[in-house]
Structures are given as structure tokens and as C-alpha cells.
Amino acid sequence: MEMKKLTLLLALLAAALSISCSDAAIRTQLTRADAGRGLTRHQLLRRMARRSKARAARLLSATGSSSPATASAVPGMNQPLDTEYVVSFAIGTPPQPVQATLDTGSDLIWTQCQPCPSCFDQTLPYYDPSLSSTSAVLPCNSSACQQLPISSCGAHSLGTNTCVYTYSYGDKSITNGLLDADTFTFHGDAAVPGLSFGCGLFNNGVYSANTTGTGIAGFGRGALSLPSQLKVDNFSYCFTDITSSTPSPVLLGLPANLYGGATAAVQTTSLIQSSDNPTFYYLSLKSITVGSTRLAVPESAFALANNGSGGTIIDSGTSVSLLPPLVYGQLHDAFVSQVKLPVTSDEPLCFAVSSAAAGKKQEVPKLVLQFEGATLDLPRENYVYEMEQGGQSSMCIAVMSSGGDMSIIGNYQQQNLHVLYDLAGNKLSFVPADCDKV
Ligand SMILES: *[C@@H]1O[C@H](CO)[C@@H](O)[C@H](O)[C@H]1NC(C)=O
Ligand SMILES: *[C@@H]1O[C@H](CO)[C@@H](O)[C@H](O)[C@H]1NC(C)=O
Ligand SMILES: *[C@@H]1O[C@H](CO)[C@@H](O)[C@H](O)[C@H]1NC(C)=O
Ligand SMILES: *[C@@H]1O[C@H](CO)[C@@H](O)[C@H](O)[C@H]1NC(C)=O
């Protein structure tokens, strides 16, 4: 009895200590970049496909595994790249709202910043550091500045010791400005002082004009990302349906109850780190099955090579999943041989649906991704979409070729899943969920 009490007391004490010296616990909301812009479902899906391609070019060139020719051969590359899920928070004292794309494929947090000599249009006012009593420009010998892949000591009205950053993406998008620190305020008034972020003065490339987004929130594994700076052990998100306007939750350093409600078992697989590309969350994908066909590709087609090329990452900033061309070819052929409908396009793969059958859900083989220790058995709505164009109904498969040797699990395939990144334990877990109830 006494012993039990003591144990309980110690446990409570430990819990209290770990709460008091910890680390932010934050719950906030995501909205889709296209939400509320009056786009039809067809327009939404078109934009999504385009963005995924642009994104692939960017990620592949970040790993050096794509030739420039591959990147420039991607169709629609000059189109806006605004990825899907935007996280809302505020910077400064008093707080100024920003909305940044949640991006597990990069680290830097940045937002467009006054005086903004070269910025794209955004719906919110530009963040203005001169209106914040807690804003600070970081010196170039600060540890945050040293973490940047490219930085310099700039001459600035605030002194010559100013950290000037340049952060570029493989699709030639670039943000350039000063590395600042300020207080961030999240949904529910959780305020965290002294977070480093890019005050983006020159932002050029395939960012979207008049988007709800004002920048990018890097959620990668590097030191400058939001989870790293908040020193959380884990984060999780649950993307509501891509065409719904219901906000999605994102939790940082909070107990994510993956076991509540859902009857399906929680699936867990290892997160793999690469010193060549320390930002990315690599997974060990073993095989892909389309209906009765297991694609005849060796595991090495999905694996991270010793030289840092290849591999499979999970990425919140890509919408449609992307596979190496050879694997995509096999997936294409497996669907074609099992779906008894005429093919209208090879990438994305679409089938004609007769007008008599339009509106009815066509039979489609199951798509299953087998990871080390975990199975992602995709529900139909996570890889099939129907559309109407010029009086023709089609049914399409939301997977495309990456044009390189990398595989990317995009957010289309993560809809209605609660996905937990356990950074302390190097594990990724997911479970089907009603995201508006998480
Ligand atoms: C940065 O440089 C300044 C002077 O140039 C110096 O006073 C300061 O201690 C340095 N800070 C760090 C973190 O090295
Ligand atoms: C953005 O919106 C503003 C105001 O509605 C408009 O003047 C501007 O042309 C738009 N820019 C683009 C690129 O659509
Ligand atoms: C996530 O981290 C928080 C804070 O460290 C912890 O309380 C919680 O149990 C973790 N959740 C999971 C699912 O690991
Ligand atoms: C990296 O390794 C892979 C597989 O071993 C090989 O196919 C590729 O050519 C290598 N790439 C470079 C740039 O050395």
C-alpha cells in the first residue's frame, strides 16, 4: 500500500517535472489552400496533379537524383505551386496572423515580410516586424543562422552582423530575406517566444498568388523546423477529405489518441533517417499490390541507397503520390489489366465511364502499400477520383510517376488517416479516423 502510494507519487512528480520543463504542447488547425476559392472538384484535382509534379521536381533535385532535363520536362511547371494544407498561427506582439503550408519535406519556416520588395499577393497583410515589440533580427553567428544551408552576413540598417538567408527549392522557387526571431502564438493562445523564421523579402517562383498561404512551415527533421524548434517528441495530423472545407487538426507534442474509436488496428513502421537528406521522413516501403497483382519490382526500387538516392518519403506537401517511372508503369499495367474499361489517359491513368454508368461507383481493384511492419490498405476515396470533362465521365487513379528514383507518399493518400510522427521513437503510426473528431 505505502509502496504503491510512493510509486504513484513519484510517477506524478515525474509527470509534473516533465510537463514543467517541456516543451510546447500545441493543437492547431489546418485548412486547405484551395478551400473556399470556388473551384470545382475537377479544377481542384487538376491543380493537385500539377502541384505534385512540380513538387516532385523540387524534391528530386534536392536529392540530386533528377537531371534538370527531367524537371523542365514536367508539364505545367510554370503553374502556381500551392500545396494543400495550410497551418494558421500568428507571429509577433501583438500577434499578426500568418498561414503557412505544412511541409514535412522542408525545414525552414518563413512568411512574406514587410517591406516586401518582391512578394506574391496574399490575402492576409504581410507580417511587419516593425509592428512587433518582440521581433529580433538574428546575428549571423547565431546558432539558427548556422543551421541554414545558405546564409551570409548582410549589411542592414540593423547592423552588418545580420543573418541573411536564401532558401531555394528545386523547382527554382526561392525565398530570400532576414532570419528573425519572434513570439509565435498558436490556436488557443499558446505562445512560444524566440522561434526563428525567415522574414521573406524576395519570394519568387511557383508560389501561388492570392492564396490563403503566406509562406511555408517546415515540419522536416532539421533543426529549424517547427517541431524541432518546439522540441516536441512527436506531432500528428489528420487530413480531412481533400474536397471538404472542414479544418484538419494538427497536434504538436500532445498525446495523440490513435486508439480511440477506430476499430482498425493502428499500423506502425520505422522512420529512417538519411545523413544525405536529413530533412526527409523516409519509410521502408516493401511492395505494392493492385487487386490480385503484386507489382513485380524488387524492394530495392523503393529503398534508400547508400549514396542517398532513391528511397520512399512521406510528405504532407505533395498531394498525389509519386512512384519511379518503372514502378508507375507496372502499377498502370496492373490497373489496366483488371479494370474492364477503355483507357482515356495514361498519366494520370483514367478510364472512360459510359454515360449509362456515370454517377455509379465503378469496381476498382484494391491498392495496398506494404511497409515494414505496416499495411496501408487504401480506401477507394484515397486513390480513385471521378470526373466529368466535355460530357465524358472518367474514373482516374491518383498516383503518378515521379520522373526520378524517389517514391513520395502524398497527402491524397493520407486523407482520413490520423498520422503520428513519433520523433523520439523514430516511428510512424497511422490509423483510419474521422479527422473532424480528432
Ligand atoms: C557574435 O558576434 C558578436 C560580435 O561580433 C559577439 O559579441 C557575440 O558573442 C557572438 N555570438 C556568438 C553566439 O558567437
Ligand atoms: C490578386 O487579387 C488582387 C485583388 O483582388 C488583384 O488585383 C490581383 O490582380 C490578383 N493577382 C493575381 C495574380 O491573381
Ligand atoms: C507525444 O508527446 C507528448 C509530450 O511529450 C506525450 O505526452 C505523448 O504521450 C506523446 N504521444 C504519443 C502518442 O506518443
Ligand atoms: C547511387 O546508387 C544507386 C544504387 O546503388 C545507383 O543506381 C546510382 O547510380 C547511384 N547514384 C550516384 C549519383 O552515384
UniProtKB/TrEMBL annotation:
Entry GO terms, CC: extracellular region
Keywords linked to the UniProt accession: Aspartyl protease, Glycoprotein, Hydrolase, Protease, Signal
CDD domains: pepsin_A_like_plant
Residues making up the signal peptide according to the UniProt record: 1-24
GO molecular function term, any single one: aspartic-type endopeptidase activity
Keyword rRNA processing: no
GO biological process: proteolysis
Domain of life: Eukaryota
Presence of keyword Chaperone: no
Active site: 103, 315
Domain Peptidase A1 as annotated: residue spans: 85-431
Matching PANTHER family: ASPARTYL PROTEASE FAMILY PROTEIN, OS07G0603500 PROTEIN-RELATED
Family: Belongs to the peptidase A1 family.
Name of this chain's protein: Peptidase A1 domain-containing protein
Species per Swiss-Prot/TrEMBL record: Digitaria exilis
Lineage: Eukaryota, Viridiplantae, Streptophyta, Embryophyta, Tracheophyta
